[in-house]
Design brief:
Layout (H helix, E strand, L loop, with lengths): L2 E6 L6 H10 L5 E7 L10 H19 L2 E7 L3 H8 L3 E6 L2 H17 L4 E6 L9 H9 L10 H12 L2
Parallel strand pairs: 1-2, 1-4, 2-3, 4-5
Length: about 160
């Protein structure tokens, strides 16, 4: 069984993430979405909220594809998370050249830690390349329309977060 791990903070999950998830499903038998707990970041959404959003978005994908997706929170090293879930492939999305520099370094470090786990890069769809969770949050915080970047449930969750601030 080919198991892939697609890690991220998913704060919040965007249409760019959904695009990568859908395309990654064609590469693996089981896709594990690793929702990262990163204490260096101050996420807008709690871990539980992020996991629930990812699960809801993935349920629609599974209904269409019939594939298997597991949502797995993690706080350890990415390579250790890959081992924990039995992944032989780490899937990463790329938007721009700036992403590549960071990802290139990450691949080198991960290969040094465990050369049996491959990293596969998927380029974001051209319509989704500019989408970044950080920018989506900023647009929503300032009252802008994020409907081109996230699904309706995620848009509602963002509106709820900023209505209380």
């Amino acid at each position: 069984m080919r198991i892939g791990l697609y890690p991220g903070t998913f704060d919040p999950i965007t249409l760019g993430h959904v695009d990568i998830i859908q395309r990654a499903m064609a590469l693996v038998d089981r896709l594990v979405i690793g929702v990262a707990i990163n204490r260096d970041k101050a996420p807008l959404f709690t871990l539980e909220e992020r996991v629930a959003m990812v699960q809801a978005e993935c349920a629609a994908i599974v209904a269409k594809t019939g594939g298997e997706i597991i949502v797995h929170p993690f706080e350890n090293l990415l390579i250790d998370c890959a081992r924990d879930v039995g992944a032989g492939i780490i899937i990463r999305g790329l938007r721009a050249v700036a992403d590549f520099e960071y990802e290139f370094q990450m691949v080198g470090m991960n290969r040094a830690l465990d050369s049996s786990i491959e990293t596969v890069f998927l380029m974001a769809d051209a319509r989704r390349q500019a989408i970044a969770s950080k920018l989506v949050k900023e647009i929503a915080r300032l009252g802008g329309d994020v409907s081109k970047f996230v699904t309706d449930p995620v848009q509602a969750a963002l509106a709820g977060k900023f209505a209380s601030k």
